[in-house]
Amino acid sequence: MAVKKLRPITPGTRHRIAPTFDEITSDVPEKSLVTSLRKTGGRNNSGKMTMRYIGGGHKRQYRIIDFKRDKHNIPATVKTIEYDPNRSARIALLHYADGEKRYIIAPEGLKVGNKIISGKGVPPELGNALPLAEIPLGTVIHNIEIKPGKGGAMARSAGSFAQLVARENRHATIKLPSGEMRMVLSDCMATVGAVSNADHMNQSIGKAGRNRWKGIRPRTRGVAMNPVDHPMGGGEGKASGGHPRSRKGLYAKGKKTRSRKKYSNNLIIARRPK
Prior knowledge:
This protein folds into 2 domains: 3-201, CATH 2.40.50.140; 224-267, Ribosomal protein L2, domain 3 (Irregular), CATH 4.10.950. With 274 residues, it is mainly β. A hairpin with a 6-residue loop joins β11 and β12. It is 4% helix and 24% strand. The chain has a 7-stranded antiparallel sheet with strand order 9-16-10-13-14-15-17, with no helix packed on it. It has 2 helices and 17 strands.
């Protein structure tokens, strides 16, 4: 995966840094693994706007991704590497030996024609999914389950990966992309390798219209509002706004929002660096 700097032919391409899509091998998704995706425009079931700055955007179809990797000990062949409009990573279409087709998040370096497999006792090679109890220490992993059988929930976005650093009793210790160190049950599944499309972070959209294509509307700054609309609004001239806070008055920087009774608090060994 690489990015390209576009020639400044228009104002929208002057600062645009776009993906090259070199690794994409098909632009038509597998029909049996595609479903419709409805837009909300930020409205709830009664039509009231509950999230601002959402609306419009290009129509999308959702690709059904296999996060569980529960088709154990059946080999699969990678048929295509595809673009997915619903996530930053690339996805791979697998054809299993029994005829079933599934999408997975494509690891970095996975090629068309590669053979992958999941389950207990499989080799810890790129794209294979196996329990944390059987993965060698120091291995780079992604799509990690928090609860066994529930499906991968951690390290799923473009370029992200975690590292297995230790094992003790029923738990394995992993270092997450944020730098946090936490314990996970050794029965949880994880996929070997880092997530594809690591250059996603280097992209520059180039113009505001591209955000509208994503369904993101222009955002109004709190300091530009009136006092009736926002705690940081009002004042003579360009007032700084005081302490950064949300529309409801909660501090936006530094206030702890994590529940003291959260189930995973005792599983976290070291919090992410501040």
